[in-house]
Amino acid sequence: MSPLLIVRLWIMVFLHYFVWGSWYVTMATYLTQKLRFEGGQVGLAYGCMAIGAIVSPFFAGIVADRFFATQKLLATLHLAGAGLLYLVSAQTSFSTFYPLLILYTLTYMAGHGLTNTLTLHHAVNPGKEFPIVMMAGSVGWIAAGLANSALKLEDNVGMFYLACGTAVVMAMYSLTLPNTPPKGAGQKLSVGTILGLDAIRLMREPSFATFILCSFLICIPLSFYFAWMNVFLNELGIENAAAKMTIGQVSDVVFLLLLPVLLPLLKAKGILLVGMAAWAVRFALFAWFDTARDSHWMMYLGIAVHGMCYDFIFVMGRMYVDKRAGEDIRGAAQGLHAFVTLGIGMFVGTWLSGVVGQHYTMESSDGVVTHNWQMIWAIPAVLALVLSFLFVVLFREGVSAVEKDERAV
User: Fold this and answer.
1) How far apart, in whole angstroms, are the C-alpha atoms of residue 230 and residue 24?
2) DSSP H or E run through 171
């Protein structure tokens, strides 16, 4: 790709993730402090993105890949999303807030895949160019967090207005992107292909089955971070909490760059294990963070390991799937991994985080709501630690599809 095209796509990814980062990190603070939603309702609200991840492959497979140019569909989805976000911002009861948020996440997660599709369609060297463009997502997330703090939007409906306005800008900008015709026009379609079920035969291999199971299970404790971290910081009186949480996205960029260096040393099993253990360490730091003492370093260290937590689980996971699957089912295998992790795993995790958060919610006689944060963080810490041990015992890397082909020759 030319440098100009890389910049154009970089802006696309930046705006797309800015929309998400504008409301996702801070929504729980708004829901608990302003709308007085219960913990279980907060968990369900965060599970909306998982619902979007489950349903959007159907949309992308049936509509996006067959009937419409990618850039036009991306513009339409963000424009519709802007309208839905505005409606979401006007709701004060969970019964109306929740279904509208689900509808919005369906549009966003469908667009989520389209940005990847558009970038890969125009990439000359995907292995080199795709990570450069996708890095804009972390930058967009950082910018959204800084904007939220600077504009004092962390606990009010303004976060949705910011996301709404950015979505409109994204819709207009999408129309300026290079034409990307539907790649699947005229091709046969099956449910198995859409959901990645064509790759189910990989589950007969113990190593891959263990990997999929552990990938699903680790999404349960990690959902606690996304649902409760901003509430935790604001309840502790940490100023500009959203801006401070962007330390995690800076870490994300750093560890993404380190991943190719560490992979030959630690191998896939080592990288995945470190990622799981990092979640246990992170939650332990939050659980035993003592606000009465000068232990803020524990809180900031817990945020700073985000790159290790995210990249070593999700990015390494995608790389492992790509290595294990043959060329004929590689796309299906990636679909299965996304369905299990971003879909079912995150939905179960956000639901459980809401149940646990509500159980350890306390309200004083004057109506002030607080939480037993030590228990809220200790539970996912133990879950991640137990899973790390199981992974060590059960997982074997096995032989990749590429290596099998080479041996056959």
Assistant:
1) 10
2) helix 158-174
pLDDT in tens, 169-218: 999 999 999 998 876 555 566 666 655 566 778 888 888 999 999 999 99
- In the chain, residues under CATH classification 1.20.1250.20 are 1-178, 195-399
**Paired strand residues for 371:** 361
- With a pLDDT cut of 70, the percent of the chain lying above it is 87
> In 3D, which of 263, 235, 253 has the Cα closest to residue 323?
263
Q: Cα(166)–Cα(231) distance, rounded to whole angstroms? A: 24
Answer for the pair 215, 345: CB distance below 8 angstroms, yes or no: yes
CATH superfamily of the domain spanning 195-399: MFS general substrate transporter like domains (1.20.1250.20)
**Cβ neighbours of 90 (radius 10 Å):** 11
Distance CA(203)–CA(398), nearest Å, equals 13
Tell me the pLDDT tens digit for each residue of 60-103.
656 665 677 889 989 999 999 999 999 999 999 999 999 999 99
Written as one letter, the residue type at 61 is: G
* C-alpha span between 348 and 351 (Å, rounded): 5
User: What radius of gyration do the chain's Cα atoms show?
Assistant: 21
Which amino acid is it at 296?
A: H
**pLDDT 10s digits, 364-408:** 777 788 899 999 999 999 999 999 999 999 888 755 544 454 444
Phi and psi at residue 393, in whole multiples of 5°?
-75, -40
Structure tokens that stand for 268 in this block: 């896939």
pTM exceeds 0.85: no
Q: DSSP 3-state helix, strand, coil percentages of the chain (rounded to 5)?
A: 80, 0, 20
Which class in CATH covers the domain with range 1-178? mainly alpha
- Compute the half-sphere exposure of residue 71: CA atoms within 13 Å on the CB side of its CA: 16
Site of tokens 């962007």: 246
Structure tokens that stand for 261 in this block: 């260096």
